[in-house]
Amino acid sequence: MAEDLPAPEKTREMRCFARTDRNGPTGQFFFHVTRDGGRTWTNVSPPFPVDTDVYEIEVSPHAPGTVFVAASRYRTANDLSPYLFKTVDWGATWTDLSPAFPAGEITRTIREDPVRQDLLYVGTETGVFATIAGGAGWERINLNLPRVPVHD
Fold this sequence. Notes:
The protein contains 2 helices and 11 strands; from the N terminus they run αβββββαββββββ. It has helices at residues 7-11, 74-77; strands at residues 16-19, 31-34, 42-43, 53-59, 67-73, 79-87, 95-96, 107-112, 120-124, 128-131, 139-140. It has a 4-stranded antiparallel beta sheet with strand order 4-5-6-7. A hairpin with a 7-residue loop joins strand 6 and strand 7.
């Protein structure tokens, strides 16, 4: 495929995160990353509990190797807790952003602002939350939006 790309594209390093479908008897999702254009893949799965549904993988527009994940267990384990994770090292380690997030909110999506690093938005079953501190504290920003699910 590289032969068909314009010259500048041939030299660009391809890096990609991928999520598998539920796998094996545990029913878990697995995350893999390639840093060599797909020749090799490494399992870099976040520390999810069993039966976690992954809804969003957000690659940071600001920092290579930084990825955010939004997940939930409400359909599989009747668990209404938020599940938000962040890696800054291509998945070698993961930080759990969930403890600072309001309890009882089902997390559906996470996005990093394309202009301001560490400004994150999370869509839940009841609206939108934001943080300007990379996940250290969250505020509801529904404004005139009624309490509705926000998936993207």
